[in-house]
Amino acid sequence: METIERTRPAVRFNDAQIEMAHGAGGKASRRLVEGLFLPLLANPILQALSDSALTSVNGVTLATTADGYVVKPLRFPGGSIGELAVNGTINDLAVSGARPLGLMAAFILEAGFAGETLREEVEAMASAARRAGVAIVGGDTKVVEHGFADGMYVATFGFGTVDPRVRLAAERVVEGDRVLLSGPIGDHGITILLARGDLDLEASLVSDTRPLTPFAEALIERAGSALHWMRDPTRGGVATALNELVRGRDFGVTLYEESIPMRNEVRGACEILGLDPLHIANEGQLIAVVSGEAADGALAAMRAIDGGENAACIGEVRATPPGSVLAVTSYGGSRVIDMLVGDPLPRIC
Amino acid sequence: MKYVDEFRDPKLISNVAREIARTADPDRHYRIMEVCGGHTHAIYRHGLKNLLPGNVELIHGPGCPVCVLPMGRIDDGLAIAQQPNVIFTAFGDMMRVPGTKGTPLELKARGFDIRMVYSPLDALRIAQTNPGKHVMFFAIGFETTAPSTALTLQRARALNARNFSVFCNHVTIVPAIRAILDSPDMRLDAFVGPGHVSTVTGCRPYEFIARDYGKPVVISGFEPLDILESILMILGQLRSGEARVENQYRRIVPWEGNLPALRAMGDVFELRPYFEWRGLGFISQSALKLSNAFAAWDAEVQFEVPGVRVTDPKAAQCGEVLKGVLKPPQCKLFGKECNPEHPIGALMVSSEGACAAYYRYVHRDEPVSV
Amino acid sequence: MCLAIPGQIVELSAEQPALAKVDVGGVKRSVNIGLLENERVGPGDWVLIHVGFAMSKIGESQARDQLRMLQALGEDELAMEEIRGYRFSQ
């Protein structure tokens, strides 16, 4: 296992209590991970802070990943917690360049939770696993007292083998690379926000939860070593994923604002609520950074996949400004895109 | 989206930008204040500074209700939130704004019932569905938002909803503009007027700015084309030596304002003799309170609040930034102790605040020209 | 200081005359139209929405006039450039 030189600034965790923001994927999450977990658990594999931990065993690179799922409501248009728990973990493996081999699931259930609902969720997990061609090979169950755990929480653990044709790392990203996105942003986050019902907004939106393995495989097949970096922009959205890529690096990313695919409903909801769609969570999108020469072919490969028709080249890697994500508009405006701060909150001013 | 996309048309934007470059006198430095935080946000959000000549400088004004709210008021609101059986409701904007003992979100994390609402009517609905609880709505906003609170209170009275109250922090924009105009270090040439406030107030309240202070005012919309056209109209007035109130946002703003809204405000609110503004200090007749007829729904009457005045840290130079004397990064705390996650000064607390917008949207290494 | 956005009225509420359903880019919400009592609004009209209230009816003709005027700004410029172009070519 090679160790990677990190130039990133050290982060400290001095927070007095855990807030919702620590789980929202933005700056507070980063403080928790890099300021508490990373120094206390320090080891070279963890140091890479990628979606999956990579270890070499007998010449094969093994990818392992774990993810916890808490969502309210448990079922929402286009999916449910069970489906998310399978797709999300498969996707963390896929964007590490790994072919998923198996999953394990740990359930935390609330006393009083309806057996029928649990059956539906396990069925949803089984069907999502079948769709992605992965088996759920083990797990664990715990029950907590009534009033905790919102019915059910699931943690899934996944493992797979990394395709030997690729080496994905932020260090491989260079000026001139292109940033590709698999489809419209914000569907999942806005669907959940609306499904909670307290904003009283209605739209025919569904979550984009799906396995990203077809996209990852097509990109590896087409671009091979010209594929430099992949990420699924979940919590914190595209803005946070790209900021994690550029932070502390000698390059930046420039996004072409109008080329970012987005449904009208997501845009409408974001306009009403004063949210930036780039900060909204996705559960079935993939960002790929590929070399300039390979970009057209890689994009064509993504578009050829069922559900990839709206894939787009949304930006490029530039030398300036280093360490920042910039969005430019066709009329010449530009702005810095920061990481999400806290949970995205609707605003009126 | 209709009435949005047309006003972001690249060709029309370049038309106006070119006309601005042609109208601006290259030998003159223009200092134009956009009063409204919504404009500040839009200017950064759309990167409009790139489209303006270097000698046209935009100064960010006081029109951000979250930013100008003194910390003591937040403490008072949160003191009510900690009373038994109370549900504290507020707009999402307030949720991360710190009082001396934390933000509403932090209080929620400690187990208090704190909920975000999109509309004051949603807060009233929570009261109706929770008859055993008291629901307090922490009201903020300028004249745009005050009528919605007024209508909600009228509805609460009609429903005789006794488990609902409003902690009123509504402020009015004109006294704040006057305070800035009267400030000795004021160096402004003109104002981009607040478009959405003016849907309620109309354009007349700004006439004194042109008449008594000789400064042009153009009431502006919030899309890139609107803001640029307003700047062009201002430059036109300055070039011909005029000072008038003009309405760029004619598709939305009636010259006379919204009479039903003004009537509802008159029914529900009365002017406070004075109110403290963060960064600007006490300004007379600059805020609203519930009138006696609505005392039963006035959280300040119904609850005991500490009412303690909290002074801002001296090192924070919010007042200077608000008046346009300093740019955000010239404040000693900017980006260091004071940042969007841990705001110290008023202008960092809301995404509309000049400092937060600057921090969020402008490249940090960009050289600052004064 | 106030986030307000245009939406189109899709229906008026039969039971509550102060409410209307408004569409913003395919997202619908019920909004209070009590502040527009002096104007006649109905399905198809565009209104400006803030915190669940319609603040103002949007004037289509004013919007059209504004855009036409800004369009003309460019055409004048184009005409000027053509004239200048002729001069250069001579």
Can you walk me through this structure?
The complex is a heterotrimer of chains A (349), B (370) and C (90). Chain A is built from 9 helices and 15 strands. Chain A is α+β, with helices and mostly antiparallel strands and 349 residues long. Chain A has 2 domains: 50-162, 2-Layer Sandwich (60s Ribosomal Protein L30, Chain: A), CATH 3.30.1330; 170-337, Alpha-Beta Complex (Phosphoribosyl-aminoimidazole Synthetase, Chain A, domain 2). In chain A, the strands form 3 sheets. Chain A has a 7-stranded mixed β-sheet, sandwiched between helices. A 5-stranded mixed β-sheet of chain A has the order 1-2-7-5-6, covered by helices on one side. In chain A, strands 3-4 form a two-stranded antiparallel ribbon. Chain B is an alpha/beta fold. Chain B has 14 helices and 13 strands. Chain B has helices at residues 10-23, 37-45, 71-81, 104-109, 120-129, 146-159, 173-182, 195-201, 207-213, 224-239, 259-268, 299-302, 318-322, 354-361; strands at residues 30-36, 56-63, 86-90, 114-116, 134-141, 164-170, 190-194, 217-220, 245-247, 269-271, 274-277, 281-284, 288-290. Chain B is globular, with a radius of gyration of 21 Å. Chain C is of the alpha+beta class and 90 residues long. Chains in contact: A-B, A-C, B-C. Chain B binds chain C through residues 1-4, 6-7, 9, 11-12, 14-16, 18-19, 36-38, 63-65, 91, 118-122, 141-142, 144-145, 147-148, 151, 173, 194, 196-197, 199-200, 222, 225, 229, 250-254, 258-261, 264, 352, and chain C through 1-6, 8, 24-25, 32, 34-38, 46, 48, 50-53, 55-56, 58-60, 62-63, 65-67, 70-71, 73-74, 77.
